[in-house]
Protein: DUF1934 domain-containing protein
Amino acid sequence: MYLVKIERKIALSKEQIPVHIKIDTEIEDTNGNENITRTEHGSYIHKGHIHMIKYDEQMEDLGEVYTTIVIQEDRISIKREGQLQMHQVFRIGHSTECVYTHPYGKFRMETTTHRMQFIKGIGNKSGKLYINYDVMLNDQEPRRHVFELQFQEEEEA
Structure:
């Protein structure tokens, strides 16, 4: 049996803008609040009414996880691939379900979206995404999440 490592790098086309990304996540449950901040490099694509942000992140103990965020007028979806897998969909006032696959098992994930907002910067070279939602894993108590992502076109060296 041969193991083949496939390297995935974001190939930039003319439509893709290299961006610096800052992500702030706050998770609140009965045990208190947890705040997570990270920065990544990725790409931003804009075609018509669809906006896409892609980035790869190196996760401790899990390796590389590839994330694609698709922003449309009535929904936002976050797809993660690698050792972590999920396709989470956000629609205001709706509950959506997906399977969250992790090396420790598979979990049913139900998401209820309360608020989402996408603000584009001048010339589509920056922007901010905000999502406020609850997540319930395998019918446990829901946890409140606030997800904020800011991106800015990277300066050429």
